[in-house]
Amino acid sequence: MFPPPRAILRSLPAAPSTTTLLRSASTSTGTSTTTTTHSNTAAAAAPTGQLSWDTFLQLRRLRRRYNLASSVVTSFAGTMAGMGYLANKEIDVTQTILGMDPLIMFGLATVGCGAAGWLVGPSLGGATFNLLQKRWVKQISVKEKEFLNHIKKNRVDPSFQSFSNPVPDYYGEKIGSVKQYRQWLKDQRAYNKKREAFL
């Protein structure tokens, strides 16, 4: 949970028994967190610059959106580049390319350029995300490993899935908050109970 700004801390009353509601805006996620403190000493002792699990999960979802948006852009750019290059090539319709009609081959090449752009997208999106969120890059890396270990430990065995009992979010990609993580755990337990009922 983000600590309150120093300016707010200096403006707090000095009485240790006063209960104050501090609001700190998270600029990286656009969300606000609320912390109740009972004294100035407790507020000052709060860890600074620590990334909370809720914020980490929100940043993780934001990174995935960056990757998706980047893939769309690079795929479109790759397709346009491929079409622009192939449009300037002279086509001899009397000859085949690798045993295929030239128009079909050029169409497949254009699709290939778009697919290559789609694969390059996450690299560009990840680099952009790390640049904009460089304050949290190291902590995100540490929490990412810990989070994936939790997912591997608690996810179900997919070999028992069926049409009536599909695996609930095997990779935990839909988890965007601690509340959703708890719901994910409940879904995993429900899957196991349903599987045991059919065994």
Description:
There is one protein chain. The chain has helices spanning 6-10, 40-44, 53-87, 102-132, 137-154, 178-198; strands at residues 20-25, 32-37. The protein has three domains: 6-50, no CATH class; 52-135; 155-199. The chain is 58% helix and 6% strand. The two termini are 44 Å apart. Strand 1 (20-25) and strand 2 (32-37) form a beta hairpin.
Give me some keywords for this one.
3 domains; 6 helices; 199 residues; 2 strands; disordered N terminus; two-stranded antiparallel ribbon; mainly alpha
Mean pLDDT: 76
Write down how many β-strands occur, each being a DSSP E stretch of 2 or more residues: 2
Low-confidence stretches: 1-47
- What share of residues are in beta strands? 5-15%
- Cα-based radius of gyration, to the nearest Å: 26 Å
The separation of the N and C termini measures 44 Å
Helix content: 55-70%
Q: Which structural class do the helices and strands define?
A: mainly alpha
Largest beta sheet: strand ordering: 1-2
What gross morphology would you assign?
flat
Quaternary class:
single chain
Q: What is the H/E order?
A: HEEHHHHH
Number of domains: 3
Number of helices: 6
Largest sheet: 2 strands, antiparallel
Please sum up the structure shown.
By secondary structure, the chain is mainly α. Helices cover 58% and strands 6% of the residues. It folds into 3 domains: 6-50, no CATH class; 52-135; 155-199.
List the helices and strands and how they pair.
Elements: H1 6-10, E1 20-25, E2 32-37, H2 40-44, H3 53-87, H4 102-132, H5 137-154, H6 178-198
Antiparallel strand pairs: 1-2
Helix pairs in contact: 3-4
